Amino acid sequence: MKKALPILLLTLLTMLGFTFAHAQISTFPYVEDFENPSSFQTTASCDATVSGATFSGWTQDPNDDGEWRADTAGTGSIGTGPGATATTSGVGVGTDANPGTTGGTYLYTEATSGTSCSNSNISLISGYFDFSATGKYYRVKLSYHMFGAGMGSLHIDVNQGGTWYNDIWSQYGEVDTNWHVAIANLGKFNTDSIQIRIVAVMGSNYLSDCAIDNFIVEEYNPPLYDAVILEAFYEPNEYPIIPISQFDSLSFEARVRNEGINSITQTEVEVTEGSFTTSVVLDTITSFAEKSGTSTGKYFPSSSGTKTFVFEATLAESDTVYNNIDSTSIIVSDTVMARELGGVTGGIGFNGGTGEIGHMFKLINADTITSVTFYIQNPTPGDSVKVHLRNFNITPSSLIQSSQAVVLATGVNWYTVKLNCPTVVAAGEYFVGVEQLVAGS
Predict the structure, then answer these.
(1) What pLDDT is attached to residue 352?
(2) Of the candidates 107, 86, 82, the residue with the CA atom closest to the CA atom of residue 95
(3) Residues 6 or more apart whose Cβ sits within 8 Å of residue 227
(4) On the CB side of 422, how many CA atoms lie within 13 Å of its CA?
């Protein structure tokens, strides 16, 4: 009997461990406002050697690229995070979403690092939510804050029976300085036990402190029919500005989810721009399922200017939830620009002196410019050039930032030149030029 006791004790502990690891949450609404972290931290999130804060029932994903950090009263970087503005940090003034005070706690991805955190996946995984016994429908709400010109993306995923369903909700890029609420329909899983994973994909630079707070799972009544446009874009989408003389025809793609409890039929996404119209035909989409498709027609512009394409989902049934419209834009320019391979008929330039040549570009959102890439068809070895970033108001105007001089090399056509300092710029029009520094070339 004495020899058997340790074996029985080990078995009992193992069974208890299994039970605790799979504890079920079955009382709703469930609210986690992250107010009692194990620690507060400002360590870079991509530094996986420093464990992040822990919360009862939640796990920092051991298989991702780092850790969520718990914080309060604003993050330390200017231009990103709760409480920050374009010129100030959020320290001392940043609030959480619930209770909405400077003393409240939120989780965030700290992007300031000695090494780049770019594209690091930072994941937080919930416990198990058991919907199987209720016969009801549920949804998840999550408060999020995404301010910063280098912002990445935020995603909500669901684990059902060991299979992860990614992006039941997602948000890409900078939003603004406010807290917002994401709402994701969990109706597809109303007879199951599930986990939820919150994933931040960190952005291109330190201006990507993404914060979350006030996670809620609650009961709700889904509509009978509900077509939701998840994605709407044109292809090819390599250039936001395209010269009319170099324009290729565009096709359109759309992805739609039916968030109603019944199937929807004769589903189409109509695409319009002025007198142009085409459609993406999707037909029947079953309850809580998705479909993607490509337009039957293509677009070719007859004039320059900003072209805004409106996408609207239509169906045979009555859709009473107004979330089925999206839009995207492209600028058709009357200017001739160089493209990657070879010269352009009708291009402009100069010979026999120094000068600066380039083109205007437009930023839809604030961003950080670190370098400029350009192509020289027949470079003269030993000549030197310099890159300039300027404001633009009808014509190129005041200088914002420049690069160091670059010496052209034999047989090298492509050059990527760093600006002297990474430059944060607001949405608007700018001019980038390449200055020839050697006369007579």
Answers:
(1) 59
(2) 82
(3) 256, 257, 258, 264, 267, 285, 313, 314, 315, 319, 324
(4) 10
- Angle, alpha carbons 245-248-250 (nearest 5°): 135
Tell me the pLDDT tens digit for each residue of 292-339: 999 999 999 999 889 999 999 999 998 877 778 999 998 887 765 444
Is 215 within 8 Å of 139 (Cβ atoms)? no
Number of CB atoms found within 10 A of residue 91's CB: 16
Across 349-364, average pLDDT? 75
Token reading at 30: 């469930």
More confident site: 364 or 179: 179
Contact present, 255 and 230 (Cβ < 8 Å): yes
In sequence order, what are the beta bridge partners of 171? 154
CA atoms within 13 A on the CB side of 168: 25
Instruction: Give whole-number Cα distances, 181 to 38, 56, 155, 171, in Å.
Output: 25, 23, 13, 11
First to last CA, the chain: 96
Three-state SS letters, 187-220: HHHCCCEEEEEEEEECCCCCCCCEEEEEEEEEEC
User: What does the pLDDT look like over 42-56, one tens digit per residue?
Assistant: 999 999 889 998 888
Which residues are paired to 145 by β-bridges? 211
Residue tagged 């504890």 (tokens): 23
Average pLDDT, whole number, for the chain?
Answer: 86
Strand 138-146 with 180-185, pairing: antiparallel
Q: Please tell me the distance from the alpha carbon of residue 56 to that of residue 58, in angstroms, as a whole number.
A: 6
Query: Residue 191: in which H helix or E strand, if any?
Result: none
Q: How buried is residue 231: exposed, middle or buried, by Cβ count under 10 Å (0-12/13-18/19+)?
A: middle
Q: Please determine, for residue 222, whether its predicted confidence score (pLDDT) is greater than 50.
A: yes
β-pair partners for 124: 60, 198
The SS3 call for residue 234 is strand
Give the residues across from 218 on adjacent strands. Answer: 139
- Which tokens is 391 given? 């404001």
Kindly list the distances between the CA atom of residue 123 and the CA atoms of 199, 376, 427, in Å, as whole numbers in the listed order. 4, 43, 30
The yes-or-no verdict on residue 347 having pLDDT over 50 is no
- Please state, in angstroms and as integers, the Cα–Cα distance from residue 266 to each residue in 223, 234, 252, 283, following that order: 18, 22, 18, 4
Q: Looking up tokens 């170099």, which residue turns up?
A: 246
